[in-house]
Design brief:
Elements lengths: L8 E5 L3 H17 L9 E5 L1 H10 L4 H7 L14 H14 L3 H14 L6 H11 L9 E7 L5 E4 L7 H8 L9 E3 L2 E5 L16 E5 L12 H8 L4 E5 L3 H7 L9 H23 L1
Parallel strand pairs: 1-2, 1-7, 2-3, 7-8
Antiparallel strand pairs: 3-4, 3-6, 5-6
């Protein structure tokens, strides 16, 4: 869709595990079918699951083809789940960190170091590579990751001195579930651990479309809805979160690859319903 108003446009793709990837792909493909091409943005900001989808969208990959691939099992995927002990550690990070995002990030960094998963970085990279449709870093893509030592959130881009594979691996390095990764002298963890969507990174753009598979609020950190409410004071913003059918399709475990098919289909069906509202924002 042509940007007739010449206003800056951003797409924000949040984290949500392998089911979140499928759901976002479904949404984007449906919007494209309805004449709304989110690739026609000035920037695409991906967090965790969103970094995988953002890599495809920003590279102008055939999203319909990517959507169809969600109905074919990816044998490289690893079925994982968060234990009750690990979930308790995550919740404690928000309890102890309160509203200090850096402090929460540091606690998550400590968790990643103290509770390394059985899977190696090399094994995890194989999964990452199986999901990516390109190894070339698109110019409009930004990928979030957190410095495990300082808790600082970074929006990495093609000039950040690392590969797209490294950056996406970092963006999805869930503490205790997937291994942290080191590059540029820094240990990195999942960019969505403090904020699953990081919508605030698009606050300077005129028009923003946000896909957030995990909009739940944790602790005192602003939820995506709260961030959007603030952004709407100066921007036109559309937030899409899973509807009832999508929630049912995604299931309780976002890291279960057996739910990618249902998640993609539910996302597509929801995207058709959301298209009219998105058109008003995007045109």
């Amino acid at each position: 869709m042509q940007n007739i108003n010449k206003k800056t446009r951003a797409v924000v793709l949040g984290g949500g595990g392998v089911t979140g990837i499928a759901w976002e792909i479904g949404i984007i493909t449906a919007l494209l079918q309805e004449g709304i091409n989110l690739a026609d943005s000035d920037v695409i900001i991906g967090t965790s699951a969103g970094s995988f989808v953002g890599s495809a969208l920003a590279s102008n990959y055939d999203m319909k083809k990517l959507y169809e691939s969600q109905f074919i099992p990816n044998t490289s995927e690893v079925n994982a789940s968060v234990s009750s002990e690990l979930m308790m550690l995550w919740l404690q990070a928000f309890q102890y960190g309160k509203d200090n995002k850096k402090e929460i990030g540091k606690i998550f960094g400590d968790i990643a170091k103290k509770y390394p998963p059985k899977i190696s970085v090399e094994e995890r990279k194989l999964v990452v590579e199986s999901r990516l449709v390109t190894s070339i870093w698109p110019s409009k893509l930004k990928v979030t990751a957190i410095d495990a030592e300082t808790g600082n959130l970074y929006a990495l881009d093609k000039d950040s001195g690392t590969t797209l594979i490294n950056a996406v691996t970092a963006s999805g390095a869930v503490p205790g579930l997937w291994p942290l990764i080191n590059f540029n002298g820094i240990d990195w963890i999942d960019g969505g651990m403090v904020s699953s969507t990081n919508a605030h990174l698009a606050a300077s753009y005129d028009k923003v479309v946000i896909l957030s598979p995990m909009p739940q609020k944790y602790g005192l950190v602003p939820s995506v809805e709260e961030e959007v409410a603030e952004m709407k004071k100066s921007s036109s913003v559309s937030l899409i979160v899973p509807n009832k059918d999508s929630i049912l399709a995604i299931g309780k475990n976002p890291y279960d690859p057996t739910h990618t098919t249902t998640s993609a289909k539910a996302g597509f069906d929801q995207g058709i319903k959301e298209a009219e509202a998105i058109y008003e924002i995007w045109a």
